[in-house]
């Protein structure tokens, strides 16, 4: 079976380096907010082209902390997309703000600027822009939109590790960026981990305070924060994995290029290719098909695993059925959720694996 992810297939050298990192932390005797976290924060800030990075417990906390550090909370509205992991909207709710859902562009599945315009109200304070599937697009337009309306731009970069648009990296366009290092991400830890990135030193200091119970100095708590700290072992292993990220990203792009040129089936639609190669890191390679269940069963029979990300849009989730959204509806999102399917696209795949996936997709005839 060609799997969606294959951690066991990673290079032995990387595994040994990660074990060495764990050994280094255990020998240090310091496990939380120590030198390993400080070092990885500096490395990730440099990679993202920002001044500061603040390690936190996970990607959802990164969004919440970024919003709270911007003083966005009760009474404020935040525009985002329903085509995302539930954590994006949950983070807005946990910050005390009200999410408002904009529709997506059908050719990319990214949030529609026109729909976001329709979601504006006097209470709108921010946009959480999700770089879905690993793609960064139209950032000048989004920056202009936010500037024109006095909104903070927070980027959800959970799937877009070091995706770049016009030479700038995801997370560096707005007030803050939120990264997840969940195991399946392009840069993943063996557990939950996250990061807030920003060019704003004041925001970074606030994020540092919020992640640590709202503590300014030891035992002094000027505000209510979270317990959301990146631990030393994950930071140390992420630093080792970061050395492999460029090669792993290049392999993802090679696979995506083979899919884009090789999949020739009229029953299958592929999302638009990026305007520049650096703008997509292919955390996921998504296609759409009107006969998705039949296609998925066909792929399974041909030993190709596939996943649906995400089958239930946020506004159809039980706690969010009355959530505010674009007044003309979310039809494009609903169509995408009903037809999208993710194909394997990870660095451990061989050329033969890729060819097998292409052949299986092209061999689908439907009903």
What report would you give on this structure?
The structure is a single chain. The chain is of the alpha/beta class and 367 residues long. 38% of the residues lie in helices and 14% in strands. It has twelve helices and 13 strands. An eight-stranded mixed beta sheet has the order 1-9-8-5-4-2-3-12, with helices on both faces. It is globular, with a radius of gyration of 20 Å. The model has no long low-confidence stretch (mean pLDDT 97).
Short description:
The protein has 367 residues and is of the alpha/beta class. The chain is built from twelve helices and 13 strands.
Strand content: 5-15%
As residue ranges, the low-confidence spans are none
Rounded average pLDDT: 97
* Class based on secondary structure composition and strand pairing: alpha/beta
How would a crystallographer describe the biggest sheet? 8 strands, mixed
Strand segment tally = 13
Count, helices: 12
Order of helices and strands: HHEHEHEHEHEEEEEHHHEEHEHEH
- Helicity, in percent? 25-40%
| Order of neighbouring strands in the sheet with most strands | 1-9-8-5-4-2-3-12
Distance between the termini: 24 Å
Shape: globular
User: What is the gyration radius calculated from CA atoms?
Assistant: 20 Å
